[in-house]
Fold these 4 entries.
Entry 1:
Amino acid sequence: MTSSPELLRPGSYVYGTWHSHPDGQTLYDAVYGRPVAVLSSEGVDFAQALAYGRQKGAALRRSTFHERARALKALATHLMERKEDYYTLSLLTGATRRDSWVDIEGGIGTLFSYASMARRDLPDERFLPDGRVERLGKEGTFVGRHLLVPREGVAVQINAYNFPVWGMLEKLAPAFIAGMPSLVKPAPQTAYLTERVVRDIVASGLLPEGALQLVSGDPGDLLDHLQEQDMVAFTGSAATAAKLRVHPNIVARNVPFSTEADSLNASVLGLTVQPGDPEFKLYIKEVAREITGKAGQKCTAIRRAVVPRALVEAVTDALRAELSRVTVGDPARDDVRMGALVSVEQRERVRQTLSNLQKEAQIVIGGERDLLGGDREKGAFLDPTVLLCPSPLTASGPHELEAFGPVATLLPYDTLDDAIELTKMGRGSLVGSVVTHDRAEATELVLGMASTHGRLLVLNRDDARESTGHGSPLPQLLHGGPGRAGGGAELGGLAGVRHHMNKVAVQADPTTLMAVTHEFVPGAEVQEDVIHPFRKSFDEIQVGDSLLTHRRTVTEADIVNFAGLTGDHFYAHVDEIGAREGIFGKRVAHGYFLISAAAGQFVSAAPGPVLANYGLENLRFVEPVGIGDTIRTRLTCKRKIRKDLRPGETRPTGVVEWRAEITNQDGALVATYDILTLVERARDAHDPQPELPADGPQSTDAAQA
């Protein structure tokens, strides 16, 4: 081992300090085989690291979803400004600029996505009310509701080598939004890139102390010190996952363990597709891209190309032509499209698997090509390779052996049922794809494959322009799969946040439950004021503020005029004979008339802090209202949602959600719905300060003006 000062020495960031060790595992450049880093976790106290995360996590849990989202967005901006440093390091892993874009900017983009989702869909609270309020007693004085609260432990995240940036950030983002600190353990081969990103995160000071720790090197006895509130998320081989899952401490303490493991993903070319169709070209390009992207080192790559038997020769010829244009070599060169595998050791593992696959399949596309830079022996290069398994329904190798490199196997099929069966023989996959323009065929394949896949892509001429492709997990959708794929549930939008929270059922009287959840609960005590609620600013309105309106008797003229105004002459409203024969037995008012009449009852007409109607949700008509019935409306503040100022906006606002309940003369509920109003609020510390004129205020009066 060399002690050259040029070597990178990735450190571990634990219990608030950086730790490094002069000796350790030597890591080599994937392209030329030169030593690039020395890695060691020697001296790290794993028990202390976990205890530190749990203790410091209290500050993170005390923040709200929106505060965490703002921090995550600021962090994403900070990292994006430094991305070129990450691209430079990524070249050492064998990745091209295009490959690194998925890892680096894809990872940072995940931070942006989770920050946006949290601000849009989560309350500005430390907890998340889940589902509806359940009435548990006849009189409504005993109710229940589920809440989600942060787990009071550490999310231990053990990542694979192939995506050293995205792999970390896609786990960090939902955990952080949920209020759970992370301890990241990257794979050694590319840990120096992960460490560089973490150094920038720590230096930024944008995350609370303890929210992120890093272990560079061997994990030691880390798992021995896990407790019940901790979690583990593992990405790697199914064999390693199986060993970790039954770790005695994990089993004894029932520590949640999530896995994203091996996946022999399949892509099916539909029976209806012909060589001249756009879908045929799309299929060839997609398979070729998945073989060569990241040199095939993607958990979502296409390993099995399931094609109609009659098209095997055409697909082979087209793939050969497409792959012949892929240049291999030093990823720092602009003319190189595919770089190296992460290490020589990884290349040898792929070669061994390829040899085993050839027991039931033969190579139809392969052979070494000239390298454009790089070292064929010391570097970790392997050329794109395609095999053909003529009898895939009776073979086992293509469905059991994953060559984690630029390798795929063609599997011929005769019927759609055979194609579905072939995809299922992988025993569970992260992703599958179907390429066809025939909707009936797509439906049969999707529904047939759905039970054994975490994500399914239907690719055709209509969505190709916007499609992110077979191998691209998205923050909004599930990344995980059943069976062999590990049963994990990463990303998936806010499901990834909920995964890091504890679900508790809270039972109480309505008023107490309202106090706990900060949301109005039907049956809770309300506060009525001489000041109309629409005359109050966002800051002045409180959950439970309520208005009971004056009464209004519905007349025949109301119904006739509303029908004339809207053009809605449905018989139940305007046809006396037809209405008597209908389900109500009489003419009834339009449902939308009731909503309009209720608005007339509760609005405050003069200009004020309420700026606009922002929307209407959860509308339900309960009882009919006929001619001569009398209605009144109770409007109650249900919850408040602060809005950030957008670029160009100068007027701070928030959204107030109101529960509207329309009742008749007997007190029976006839309609209920939620109204969203945009309400002016005071400027606060989170708002950008207004810009002063270039020459500044001329006087106190001018400044006030």
Note: The longest strand covers residues 630-642.
Entry 2:
Amino acid sequence: MDPVIIVGAGPVGLALALALARHQVPSVVLDDGAGVSPEGARSTVLRADTTEFLTRLGYGRIAADGRALNSWRTLRRSRELLHLPLPEEELLHLAQHRLQRGLRDAVSAAPLVQLVHDSVVVEVEQDADGVSVHTAKTWWRGSHLVGCDGPKSVVRKQLQLRFPGRAAADHYTVATVRADLPFPGEARLHRDAPRLLHAGGSREVTARPLPDGVWRFDWRLPVGRPALTPDALVEQLRATLAGWHEGEVPPYELITSADYVVQQRLATRFQVGRVFLAGDAAHLLGSLGMQNLDEGLRDADNLAWKLALVWHNCATERLLTSYQQERRSAVIARLRAVDQAMPLLQPSTPLLEARRSVLSGSLRRNATLLSDGTLGRGRLGAAPAYPGHPAQARPSLSPGLSPTSPGVLVPDVPVVTTDGTPDRLRARLGRGFLVVLVAPGTTVWAVEHWLGAGLMPQLTEATRALPLPAELLVTEAYPSAVPHTVLLIRPDGHLVAAVQGCRPDDLWTLADRARGGSAELPTPRGGRDTVPGERVPADRARA
């Protein structure tokens, strides 16, 4: 079968290619640039699950490239509204150019990924057997195509899909600054700081640490106001630093700055036949601290395993319809949550400004909500759940779900493989489904003792008989699960079901539903050799 074609070599496109390679699916990544990742002001805050996702894809130095946040603080004037200590490695702040370089290095070491630079897509065609892509230089043939080519996506335009939304939901001036601040490792949002108000440009600033003594500052500006001039930016920076240093401006180095307007947009569809959209090509969201890249990486993780099952003939094309159902619905719920929270947290009209005393009370009551998007919590930031049949169920953003609720992202717990190797649950994701038995006392005994005891023999055979790739693991304990619970987990870490005991027919049925409900057991395509990026003549591609 032909490789999967990915248009766009940003973080989402590269992550998708690496995720497909982990599933033994070849891909061609068409990059319209020269493969250079210049240093800039853009950065992202990654949650623990997305950091782990990128680590298992081969970006091994990600922790060293970023800075773990140790706490979050929200202030208004001189009053603290919220202080949250953060567990180690829960949140990682990373410059986007470092992320891009790390993923490119991982791709260069992945034999199943072919990265092609200076390849501007001109035309996309699809038929019943695959997709043909015409660049300025040649034609490429693939089994499927994924557009990860950003807000101005050529793929989306080729599909004639609309991209409606708000062209200016928020406005920021950002800068990266090297300075010695009195709260190392802490991220903070400060609203109505007296010196900041006196500077006259912005009423709100967010500071997040990066490695090597560098910080990213985001000053929120009124929507529609022109960008800060260089002199006004320096005034804002000096006022911000003085406000955190008892009136004194410490030594600093302004490294880079940028002005950007946050858009809120959503493509009308994420799939048309064999062509898909992911990342910024599919959605834009970033108000109230939400991380659009985080959502783009969830797109990649969700789509990769589904494409892999279809590519290996372990599922039908019907499974791929669940990508749009799950991911687009999750983004819609996220955007709806922003629309509900914005009036409480971001007053923008003269009438609301005149009622600041009321809004100050609202801000105190909603200080946690103001931080949820950045911290990856609640309706603005927590991972969605995908309950039930993948082609029918709507995602949930409820933070109160149990770890054994169908569709939730599973917590990371210690596990043991059937050869006795200790590991972490999330480190085993991304190759196939996981069957996990909760069996207290497992680590006390050698593997040869418990492998043939209790449920293990029956569960071993049931796992081998599943209609898709699967691995059997054992864990001492899992939150909310009693002993002898069996968990079936998707390759992207979302729980299919938690059942008591092992009934092979029930486990098979659950796995079959998770792959889209195929009526028959397909024969895996298996060993056919496929050359990533095979070129085809134009006349054959058009046929």
Note: Confidence is low (pLDDT under 50) at residues 349-360, 521-543.
Entry 3:
Amino acid sequence: MEQTFIYVVPLLGIIGLIVMAIKSAWVTKQDAGDSTMAELAEHIAKGAMAFLKAEWKILGYFVVIAAIILGWSGTLVETSSPVIAISFIIGAVLSAFAGYMGMNIATKANVRTTQAAKTSLKQALKVSFTGGSVMGLGVAGLAVLGMGALFIVFYNMFVISTGGDVNGAAMETALEVLAGFSLGAESIALFARVGGGIYTKAADVGADLVGKVEAGIPEDDVRNPATIADNVGDNVGDVAGMGADLFGSYVATILASMVLGREIVSADNFGGIAPILLPLVIAGLGLMFSIVGTFFVNISKETDSVQTALNKGNWISILLTVAASYPIIMYMLPEGDLVLSRGGSIIFTKMGVFGAVVIGLIVGALMSMITEYYTSMGKRPVNSIIKQSSTGHATNIIGGLSVGMESTVLPILVLAGGIYGSFLAAGLYGVAIAAAGMMATTAMQLAIDAFGPIADNAGGIAEMSGLPKEVRERTDVLDAVGNTTAAAGKGFAIASAALTALALFAAYVGLAGIDSIDIYKADVLSGLFVGAMIPFIFSSLCIAAVGRAAMDMVNEVRRQFREIPGIMEYKAKPEYEKCVEISTQASIREMVLPGAIALLSPMIVGFAFGPEVLGGLLAGITVSGVLMGIFQNNAGGAWDNAKKSFEKGVMIDGVMQYKGSEAHKASVTGDTVGDPFKDTSGPSMNILIKLTSIVALVIAPHISERPHGEFAEKVNTELESKEITMEKAEELHETVEPLVLR
């Protein structure tokens, strides 16, 4: 049965890519506007490609060196293979390609959204969201196709061809090699996210501080030298960076579930691989229903809520995925009890697995809703920042920090409840499958997220082209919603990272041959504290990098205003390319050290102090990183929408305040502080969390305290004689790596 069903997964990925191509062709056919608009869009597209080429050149060296090391390490232990190097390269290439696809369509959709906004808000939403959905479907389609196809190859190579046990060392090798794909994807995602974040915020801060505050012109004014770099930054950071980010998240989540699924001996109709195959199938289903959900994102009137339209499409994709997961789980998993010896020999059923999927989807939806509340215009948190802007810059900063800190409470409670509930439903496998359920609708989540930067670019092009006021008003409506959806997307990503990291952590513990992490041990407790510190130094490096790059940008913009006469009178064109070059060079230079910390810290601790101390390090990084990510994302999003609220006017103490007022200037300061929070260090936290866990998973066989070959031989003997019992499982648990037994 599995010989045919296993091919369904890559087929679903191909379907997603076909739909993506159709939507991409539709966007390309739309009117790109007049020559001025086309020229500006071309500047943005060229700047974005210049950055990607510079980034890819550096990352190319990294990928080659890392692949050589991985290939060599694959020869050192029996549960790995030199093929892991090829898997790593494929993951890195597809991750980079996912980012490129999103950026390519975004730089086409932006100007077409501007042109569509000349006619109606409905058409502008259709173009911008279709552009976003191209990215969402492309990322998810590549992930499902890549993971599904490589699993088929490695399953046949290491298990079928050798006659190996699907629960033993043969499948462990297949999944260890597949982990290389995830490592490649997450490595590129980290550099793309950090580099893109530094780029976009350096340009944004320069455009804001000199353009808005000093020169008194809009950040998107054609006279602002940093405006092209700012619009390029929206693409390389919020589109290409986010695309690579969620591609890596998607892959890591599926991998974690598959690794834990190996530890379930399942008497199913799929040769015993149903628990391993299930996360892939759920991801494929989520991709299909995300396609369905995209067709429900529309409005009929100018006064209709864009946010409501996006929420409708999102909820439809979630509910359809839940409905379809039930029959698939009932069909694939066997009747009776399944036993997970990890975490106290948890006994669960396939209904428990379905319950975990539902819990994961609920947690994802709640995280998005909570984030939306804390970052939306008109809600209490943003209104509190607006009010505190009336008394100056300092109180605005205090208000934003307070909102960001407060916003960690509900998400953490939801996350804790989701972890505990999914564990009760199906043990650690339930936690992993809950993360897979949450990430199932990634295509829709990313479509909603990517539409925001497209709308932001569209507004910039409208401003620079001098289009009528109603055009900018329509793009501003989309942009304001885009700020909220971007924040919600980041909340969703950090929640998935927490669940995925826990599942990867559980998989690591098994492969590393340890039963628990004992914080009574001084070295383990030390590792925990060091791990909790890493997100702080990582954030510090990212924010400081933005600050240094922004200083260079500010000085360049001031120089151009000072040395090029006629800019303010529209008699001379600014040197946009100089600002683009500054952001590109700064981002490439500054992304190296944060990336090195994420990649090297688990390797140094693991090889120097052993697997248990590394476990402590991972626990510290996960908890601290989740809190830092939520705090920074929400504080930055709230500051941004507080600033945007002044564009239509806000009532403060009975007085209407608008752009240009002292309160608005204070809100610009808050937004400037929040920029690196929400677009550089904050969203990088989820990649940091998962990447360190994946690195630990890859090196686990090398630092394992137990011989895997001896374990597999003992288990296979017991299974063949059909004498395996829970008592025997507990006996084996004392001497060898735990296995899920039935």
Note: Residues 708-742 have pLDDT under 50 and may be disordered.
Entry 4:
Amino acid sequence: MRSLPTADPGVPDARSPMSYLRWVARNQAGPLLLGIVYATVWWLAMALVPAVLGKGIDAITAKDLPSLLTWGGAAFALGVVQAVTGILRHRIAVYNWLAAAYRTVQVTARQATRLGATLPRRVSTGEVVSVGNSDIAHIGNAVDVLIRGIGAVVAIVTVTVILIGTSLPLGLAVLVGVPVMALAVAPLLRPLHRRQHAHRDLQGELSTRGADIVAGLRVLRGVGGEEVFAARYREESQRVRRAGVRVASVESTLEGAQILLPGLLIAGVTWLGATFAMRGQITAGQLVAFYGYATFLIAPLRALTETADKLTKGHVAARRVVRILSLRPDVEGGTAASPGGLLRDVASGVAVRPGVFTAVVTATPEEAVAIADRLGRYTDGDVDFGDVPLDTLPLPEVRRRILVADNDAKLFAGVLRDELDVTGQACEEEIAAALHAACAEDIVEALPGGLDGHVAEAGREFSGGQRQRLRLARALVLDPEVLILIEPTSAVDAHSEARIADRLAKARAGRTTLVCTTSPLVLDRTDHVVYVEGGLVRAQGVHRELLATHPAYAAVVTRGEDS
């Protein structure tokens, strides 16, 4: 078995579902062609068996032992060919299924990485999850069934040619019956496509709802909202069920057509063959061969119907993938370089001096987030880094040098050490220093296994304050050139907040740091405070001086202290 592909030529520029499916097929053209060859030989080996059996029966009727041995050997050879090519066809089919499915995972994951913060703003969680849950299977099925579908067409053409050569009326019956059967099934495909599309949309919405409920379960229990959200989930689940039933109704009709229509064709061909045999127009062996062909045709005809069904599902799934692949990042990078220096948001006037522990206090929390997003290049804005516009720097360099850490950052399942040291380059002393600065040593000590202990999904075994301290420790372990923190102590008690403020100032001494906060305990440890109101800098200086000289600043900070 060949190994699966491990790399692809970037994210495809897929503008339609068919263009994406063609891109997938081009990237595995060799295995696809090989699979088509195996499938064609496999189908042909089965298609020739009725002819060989018919010749053998005629040899028995004529008491021709040499011919009987010859056709018996031919039947054995066809059985061997069928067995070998059947195994090879199945193996290459599995490879093509996996390659198409996980190539989709690769390009989707690569696109998610490229989009970064753009993705959650443009696509729901359920939509992305559904790509990995169901869409990859449908895309893999579409590529897999294409192999058998092409082989089935070759087998039907071969049988038709044999039948026409033996009996023109029987051959014409098959030649006319197959297209008629295909036309009879075609009207079912459009409503199936439409209903599958609606069902898939509802599944994505339901997945999003489920993810939101799980993520906010603690809050829901706190406010007594479990029953309300459970009822909403139940209602949406029933909508998905009803949509699934509508899809199943069309699929069941299609499945019935796969049995009924070929059966009618087989009955007609068998009746004609029996009539010709009774008239002496064909031999007994030919009658058996015709019946064998009629029975054999069930498989390739069903394969064609299955091909239409799975290609339709693959088209629907590819549309979801294309929707994600067609997104473009909200921000793009350039090719310039910057030695660093003053980081300045021109729109607001906020300037973060190198090596200074700076704080930004805003009249509303949204203003602080907007400033941090512009300084971290998560949204477009006129920002200078030294003498160079930030938007001219390569985006990976911006992410490496400027880190924005907020309270929406996630903790992932895995070993705590790996969670804190995401690059794997920090030593024990650096991790310990970061934990000390974030006052998170007690969390590690309480966790079975310590740093080598396992963290559950989203760090659900930790309280809100513990998760906040671990996120702060993770940011400090990275030790970026510029660290921007958004309310890093909002979920901890006052005693812990005072210790974190003092240790954070010492840990980031001489390093460029910006803290967006209204906490007096943190502000009192900063070197410089900037007050922003209405999107513009209104005052700046030392915390205690601003408290005494600027009433608006004092009102914001006092309100934060009282809360």
Note: The CA atoms of residues 323 and 354 lie 42 Å apart.
